[in-house]
């Protein structure tokens, strides 16, 4: 757990998470994402997840 837990958690953890989200959005904004397998099947137990790993093709302009 990188930010600790309980009452003594890191005071900057919320700021770090927001900064990481902004970083990802800024770098992915100019990219195109396409599914390689159009008929992805999902397994539903215990949580929904793709059975083939959901491969994608990412092309940045």
Structure description:
The protein has 61 residues and is α+β, with helices and mostly antiparallel strands. It is built from 1 helix and 4 strands, in the order H-E-E-E-E. The strands form 2 sheets. The protein has a two-stranded antiparallel ribbon with strand order 1-4. A two-stranded antiparallel sheet has the order 2-3. The radius of gyration is 17 Å and the shape is flat.
Task: Annotate the secondary structure layout.
Blueprint: H1 13-28, E1 31-35, E2 42-43, E3 49-50, E4 56-60
Antiparallel strand pairs: 1-4, 2-3
Helix amount, in percent? 25-40%
Spans of at least 5 consecutive residues whose pLDDT stays below 50 are none
Kindly report how far apart the N and C termini lie. 35 Å
Structural class: alpha+beta
Number of strands: 4
Short description:
With 61 residues, the chain is an alpha+beta fold. Helices cover 26% and strands 23% of the residues.
Main features:
61 residues, alpha+beta, two-stranded antiparallel ribbon, two-stranded antiparallel sheet, oxidoreductase activity, acting on paired donors, with incorporation or reduction of molecular oxygen
């Amino acid at each position: 757990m990188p930010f600790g837990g309980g009452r003594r958690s890191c005071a900057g953890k919320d700021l770090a998470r927001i900064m990481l989200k902004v970083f990802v959005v800024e770098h992915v904004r100019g990219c195109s994402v396409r599914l390689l397998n159009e008929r992805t099947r999902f397994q539903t137990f215990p949580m929904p997840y793709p059975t083939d790993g959901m491969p994608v093709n990412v092309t940045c302009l």
